[in-house]
């Protein structure tokens, strides 16, 4: 009886630990994927986002930003890219239908704007 209970406790503990480790690995992998994707997007687009492009997203500079976002999405590894203004407007996007649209800012985006 004691042996059976001990074995059950060891197995249950091992399963719980395995689940915790698995969850941690999954969260770490997602966070790393987000950081890597952010680095790729910023490395490709930051140099193109100028004051002129932000003031007039329909300008040639703005079109260059949107074109670059479109190229990044066609790789197949990124589904959608949007560059937001502080007011909740999509300034640049790979999808023309999203540009200049106003959306309510989610809490995580507000936190990102605050630094």
Report on the architecture of this protein.
The chain is mostly helical and 115 residues long. It has 4 helices and 2 strands. Strands 1-2 form a two-stranded antiparallel ribbon. A hairpin with a 5-residue loop joins strand 1 and strand 2 (90-93). The longest helix has 44 residues, at 2-45. It is elongated and about 80 Å long. The model has no long low-confidence stretch (mean pLDDT 86).
Write the layout of secondary structure elements.
Elements: H1 2-45, H2 51-55, H3 60-74, E1 82-84, E2 90-93, H4 107-114
Antiparallel strand pairs: 1-2
Q: Which ranges are low-confidence, i.e. pLDDT below 50, for 5 or more consecutive residues?
A: none
Mean pLDDT: 86
Describe the sheet with the most strands: 2 strands, antiparallel
- Tally of individual helices: 4
Overall structural class, as computed from helix and strand content, comes to mainly alpha
- Spatial shape: elongated
Strand order in space, largest sheet: 1-2
- What gap, in angstroms, lies between the N and C termini? 58 Å
Helix and strand succession? HHHEEH
Question: What level of helicity do the residues show?
Answer: 55-70%
Q: What Rg is obtained from the alpha carbons, in whole angstroms?
A: 22 Å
Question: How many β-strand runs?
Answer: 2
Strand composition percent:
5-15%
